[in-house]
Amino acid sequence: MGSFLIQRFIGSPKIFFLFLLVSQSFASETISLETMKSTAYDVLKDFNFPIGLLPKGVLDYDLDFSSGKFSASFNGSCSFSIEGSYQLKYANAIKGYISKGKIASLEGVSVKLLFMWVNIVEVSRRGDDLEFSVGIAAAGFSIDNFEESPQCGCGFNCNHLQVRKIRKNPFVSSY
Predict the structure, then answer these.
(1) Residue 147, C-beta contacts closer than 8 angstroms, at least 6 positions apart
(2) N or C: which terminus of the chain has fewer CB atoms within 10 Å of its end residue's CB?
(3) The domain containing residue 110 runs over which residues?
(4) Are residues 27 and 76 in the same domain?
């Protein structure tokens, strides 16, 4: 009775077999498209930022293309030193708004200045430099410093190699 209904619905066994092949093909394409979701690092590149703005280990991210609202999560907080003088800390989740060359309303990323931690609230790309704003002041760094992602805990000095020098733009501005 079941094969009679299938045969009546589809027509012939050959068409039914073709139907099964096509449906499996669409199902596998859908699965492969889901597994091909771009990474948070790819999203940074799409918005003209280097991948090194995010440390290694992003577990998941979310991006609303219409508003630019994004979030990224790590397996716990992440901190590291760069060149020994800059200490950075990422919360277990960061968020903000991303657009071409600008990350605004950033939450969850902070830098230690002297003896206190201050939040980095905006990152802007200006040619070959990145400008990091903490609200009342900003500092610029060459984009070359961010070609690779640092690692939580050890930054760029994970193999106990010589620490790479961060090239800073000669300006620091106050608002």
Answers:
(1) 50, 51, 52
(2) N
(3) 40-174
(4) no
